Amino acid sequence: MAGIYIHIPFCKKACTYCDFHFSTTFEKYRTEMVQSICSELIFRKDTLQNQIVETIYFGGGTPSLLTEEELTQILSTIHQNFNVQIGAEVTLEANPDDVLKDKVQVWVKAGVNRLSIGLQSFHSESLQWMNRAHTVEQSLACIGIAQAAGIKNVSIDLIYGLPNMSNEVWREEIRTALKLRVQHISAYCLTIEPNTVLSSWVKKEKIQPASNELQHEHFTILQEELVNEGFEHYEISNFALPNYISKHNSSYWKGAHYLGVGPSAHSYDGKYRSWNISNNQRYIKGISCKQPEYDFELLTKENHFNEALLTGLRTKWGVNIAVLETILPLHQEFYQQIETLENKGWAELLEGVLYLTNEGKSWADKIAQDLFV
Ligand code: SF4
What we know:
A hairpin with a 2-residue loop joins β14 (about 345-350) and β15. The chain is an alpha/beta fold. It starts with a strand and ends with a helix. Helices cover about 40% and strands about 20% of the residues. α1 (about 30-45) runs parallel beside α2 (about 70-80) and α6 (about 165-180) packs parallel to α8. The mean pLDDT is about 95. It has 15 helices and 15 strands. The protein has two domains: about 1-255, Aldolase class I (TIM Barrel), CATH 3.20.20.70; about 300-370, Orthogonal Bundle (Arc Repressor Mutant, subunit A). The structure holds iron/sulfur cluster. Iron/sulfur cluster (SF4) binds near residues 61 and 95.
């Protein structure tokens, strides 16, 4: 089982909080970029060693900016060079302002069967504050348009923990989303990443980030509201109706191999993790000279152990202690830490598998870090 990730490094506007790799001036070289992505797919077609590709994911950036020809060109290249499972999950990240009837029909015709829409908010002030390219009306309309055009699996992204966002406003955001009858919701707490507009506002004291307490309250409200409506909380930031868990993202958390193409895309082959250069021009040049620029690391036993721990704790599948022990021997101190977590009500050990409780999920990254070797 394997997956392919394609990074489309174009966006209409730069969102204030975003530290992903993208450019807002891409028209002059978009054809070259798509050609380079296709060349990289061909160049690296043996990386997955003919494993069956069960998921294809267009992320970015903004993949919904691709034209019909560009999207078809990339998907055809994948089908011609990889062993793609019939009925594979094919996800396209889209922004609400790109979700138009004709465009979605094109996506469906090209083979896309899942949309992940970067909706983020139903409040005009929040969208403007984040410098999003879409309006509230587009947030409200996009899901119906996607469903009417034949997409039966729609995920949306929401953001919480905005400065001054009250619990009531956040609850209302979730309830509005629920009325739209999507199958999957990803909700992320706003983080202040270096070199973003947001971090400059914090430095200049133009804004005061939300407190940890407020973020925790928002997370608790999120769990309550979505679980009440039948969503399964299967990963810290992800909730799905039955049978709608994201296969692509789950495969990352389960350690499956994946090939990432495009600038800044990451790949994993079970031993090595590699990542392409985060520079559009150098990426194109490297591919055209058949000398792609990328970096890599060999995962040590410690890396494997820590990754298995972190990803396991973040998901509903938990972390199997016997599996951890096959990577590195566990010491008494590790078991004592687990006992402390259980006493705090943050974790439970059931039949050799360690799970976080709803309360513990709020502190998942910190708990994992404390258990890291
Ligand atoms: S659209 Fe997405 S990738 Fe582009 S700047 Fe906004 S958050 Fe970042």
